[in-house]
Design a protein that fits this description.
It is built from 15 helices and 16 strands. By secondary structure, the chain is of the alpha+beta class. It folds into two domains: 245 residues, Bira Bifunctional Protein, Domain 2 (BirA Bifunctional Protein, domain 2); 89 residues, Rossmann fold, CATH 3.40.50. The strands form three sheets. Strands 1-5-6-11-10-9-7-8 form an eight-stranded mixed beta sheet, with helices on both faces. A five-stranded mixed beta sheet has the order 13-12-14-15-16, with helices on both faces. Strands 2-4-3 form a three-stranded antiparallel beta sheet.
C-alpha cells in the first residue's frame, strides 16, 4: 500500500493516498486554541449584554452585488478581496467581508428603524478578506458594536469608544494607545483631498508605485500605506483637523470632552484615516506596540452615516467599532496574560473490567442528569491510565467501579486531592456527590 503523505495547506492532491488539508490562509481552531477564542467570545458577549447591546446574527453568505455596491468607490478592492461563489437560484454570493455593513443591511431590511431609536446592536462571526491588521490571514473572527438611528449625538461616539476601552481592559491587555481623528463631513472631505493630493504631488518621486497609482483615484489611500518609503511622508502630511468646518470641529470637541469626562486618555493622530467615503466625523483606533516593529491594531471604528445611504437609501446616523479575536489573542499571549481557571471537572469515572464498563455508561448518564460535570475514559482499560487522565483534567472526585461493586450495587468514591476514599451505595451516589461538590465536604476514610 502506498505511503500516505500530508500536503501543505492549500496544496493540491496528486493521488488518493495523500491527506486532505484545509485551504490556504484560513485555519482550524483546535482544542488547545479554543480556550483563547472562548475567552474573547464570553468577555465580549458579557460586555455587550452589560451595556445593553442586542444581538444581530447575519448569515456568512451575502449577495455579491451588496458588497460590491458597498465598496463601489474602489471596484478593484472587491474584485481582489472577495471570495465569491455561484449558487443555483441565488445568483452570485460572497462570503461576508465585514460584519458592519451586513448589520446595517439587516437594520433596513427588517424595519429596525421603525422601532425605538437608536438601536444598539452587537454582532459576531467570521469575515473573509485579506487582513491589513494580520497579514496572510483570509479569515478573521470579528466582534462588533453598532449604535444606529436616532441622532448623531457625540455621546454615542464616546459610548462606542468607552465599550472598546472597557473591552480591552477586560482582556487584561496593558499599554494600549487610543488614537483619534476626525474626517469631518463631505465638504471637509473634498477640501482635504485636494490639499493631500497637492502635498503628495510635490513628493511623487519619493512614494511607492502603488501610492503613485492611488494618488490619482483616492489620495486618502496614501495615508494607509505601510511601506517604509512612505511612512516619513505621512508624518508630515496635512492634517484633516486643519480642514474640518466649524460644525465638524464642534462635534469633534464634544466627543473629546466626553472622553475627558470618562478619563479615557487619547492622542490626536492624523494617520488614523479611512479611505472609504462613507466614513465621517470621528475615527478611532486602539493599538499596541509590538515586537514586530509595527503597532498591533486591537480595535478600530468610527462614524459612518453615509454607508446607510448606500444600503438603505437615506443617510442614517451610525457609529460603531469592532475587534478581531486573532489580534486580541496575539496581544494577550505577548503580555503573558493567563486565562481564568475554568471550573474543574467534578467527577471522573474509572471502570475495571468489561462488566463495570457496561454499567458505567448508565452511571455517567445518571450523574449528568443530576447536573454533575462528569468525564470518563471508557475506551481505556488500565486503572493507572484512567487516573492519570482524571488528574490531567482537574477532576476533584473519582468513582471507581469494578466487578465487586457491580454485584454489590455500590461504588468507590475517591477524593483526588487527598487520596482518601470510601464506598457509597450506588443509588445514593448522585445526591452524595452533589452535596460534596457544593460543600467541598472531604471524603472520610471508611
Amino acid at each position: 500500500m502506498p505511503k500516505k503523505t500530508i500536503v501543505k495547506r492549500g496544496g493540491k492532491l496528486r493521488n488518493q493516498e495523500k491527506v486532505f488539508t484545509g485551504p490556504a490562509h484560513v485555519s482550524d481552531i483546535l482544542p488547545v486554541d479554543w480556550p483563547w477564542f472562548d475567552r474573547v467570545r464570553t468577555v465580549t458577549e458579557d460586555l455587550a449584554n452589560f451595556y445593553g447591546f442586542r444581538v444581530v446574527k447575519t448569515p456568512v453568505l451575502e449577495r455579491a452585488d451588496f458588497f460590491s455596491t458597498v465598496y463601489d468607490q474602489d471596484p478593484s478592492f472587491f474584485e481582489q478581496q472577495s471570495l465569491t461563489l455561484k449558487a443555483k437560484g441565488s445568483g452570485q454570493l460572497v462570503l461576508r467581508m465585514d460584519g458592519m455593513p451586513a448589520v446595517l443591511r439587516s437594520y433596513f431590511e427588517h424595519g429596525l428603524g421603525k422601532m425605538l431609536q437608536p438601536q444598539k446592536l452587537f454582532y459576531e462571526g467570521e469575515i473573509y478578506r485579506q487582513s491589513e491588521i494580520l497579514p496572510g490571514k483570509r479569515m478573521l473572527h470579528q466582534y462588533g458594536f453598532e449604535i444606529v438611528g436616532g441622532s448623531n449625538d457625540p455621546l454615542y461616539d464616546a459610548q462606542i469608544i468607552l465599550v472598546m476601552e472597557r473591552l480591552l481592559k477586560s482582556f487584561r491587555i496593558k499599554g494600549f494607545t487610543l488614537s483619534v481623528n476626525s474626517m469631518g463631513c463631505r465638504n471637509c472631505h473634498q477640501a482635504y483631498k485636494k490639499q493631500l493630493q497637492a502635498y503628495y504631488r510635490n513628493h511623487e518621486k519619493e512614494i511607492c508605485d502603488s501610492c503613485s497609482t492611488d494618488l490619482q483615484k483616492n489620495p486618502l489611500l496614501l495615508m494607509a500605506c505601510q511601506k517604509e518609503e512612505c511612512e516619513g511622508l505621512k508624518e508630515k502630511a496635512p492634517s484633516f483637523l486643519d480642514k474640518i468646518c466649524s460644525s465638524c470641529s464642534r462635534n469633534f470637541r464634544a466627543v473629546l470632552e466626553y472622553l475627558d469626562e470618562l478619563e479615557i486618555p487619547y492622542v490626536l493622530d492624523n494617520r488614523v484615516i479611512n479611505a472609504w467615503d462613507f466614513y465621517n466625523q470621528i475615527l478611532f483606533e486602539f493599538s499596541l506596540e509590538s515586537e514586530k516593529g509595527k503597532p498591533l491594531v486591537l480595535a478600530r471604528g468610527g462614524r459612518h452615516d453615509f454607508l446607510s445611504e448606500i444600503i438603505g437609501g437615506k443617510v442614517t446616523p451610525a457609529v460603531g467599532g469592532s475587534i478581531f479575536a486573532e489580534a486580541i489573542i496575539e496581544a494577550m499571549k505577548a503580555q503573558d496574560v493567563k486565562l481564568p481557571a475554568k471550573n474543574q471537572k467534578g467527577v471522573f469515572i474509572v471502570h475495571v473490567g468489561e462488566l463495570a464498563k457496561k454499567k458505567s455508561l448508565r452511571v455517567v448518564e445518571e450523574l449528568r442528569q443530576g447536573g454533575i460535570s462528569v468525564t470518563e475514559a471508557l475506551g481505556r482499560e488500565s486503572i493507572k491510565s484512567q487516573l492519570k487522565m482524571a488528574a490531567r483534567l482537574g477532576a476533584q472526585l473519582a468513582l471507581l467501579f469494578g466487578q465487586k461493586e457491580v454485584y454489590e450495587e455500590s461504588i468507590i468514591l475517591r477524593d483526588l486531592r487527598t487520596g482518601l476514599q470510601e464506598t457509597v451505595i450506588l443509588s445514593k451516589i448522585v445526591s452524595e456527590i452533589q452535596r460534596r461538590l457544593k460543600e467541598k465536604f472531604p471524603v472520610v476514610e471508611g
